[in-house]
Amino acid sequence: MHSNGVFFWRNRKVNAKISTLHHITFIALLLVCGLTQAKPPQNTSVIQSHFNEEIEVLGESPLTFPHLNEVYKDYKVRVKTTGEITGITLDSKNKPVNKSTLSRQNAQAKYAKYGSLSKELYEKVMEMGPRDSLAVIIWLDDAPRTPLVRFIPKYRDPNSEEHKKEAQVFKAKLLQMKKERTELIKTHAGPLLGVLRSLNARKISEGSSFPYFTSELTKAQILSLSHRKGITIYSDIDPKVALGEVMLRTTSQTIRAGGGGIPNDEFGLTPHSDTSTNDQGITGTATTIAISEFGSIKFDATGNNRLKGANREDDPANCMNGKKQPDGSVFDLHATPVAAVANHRNNGCTTTPDEACNSNGIAYRGRVLGAHTCNDADTETERYRKAMEWAFWNNDARILNRSIQDTTTALGPFSRIYDEIVYLSGLNVVAAAGNVAFGSSDKVTEPGIAYNVITVGNSYVHTPGNLERLDDPIGWSDDTLLDSSNHINPVSGHSDREKPDVAAPGTLVMLPNGTGGYGPYTGTSFAAPAVAGTIALMQQRNSIFRYFPALTKAVLAATAWNNPRGPAYPKVDGYDDHDGAGVVVASRTNKLAKAALVSGEQVVDGFGSKPVELVEFGVMEPPWSIVDTFVKVYASPGDLIRVALAWSVDPNYQNYDNDPSADLDIIVVRPDGSQLPYEYTWDSNLEVREFQATQTGYYTFKINKYQIAVDTPYGIAVDKVKGSSLASPRDKDDPV
Question: Which of 463, 499, 512, 518 could form a disulfide with 356 if both were Cys (CB 3.0 to 4.6 A apart)?
Answer without folding.
Answer: 518
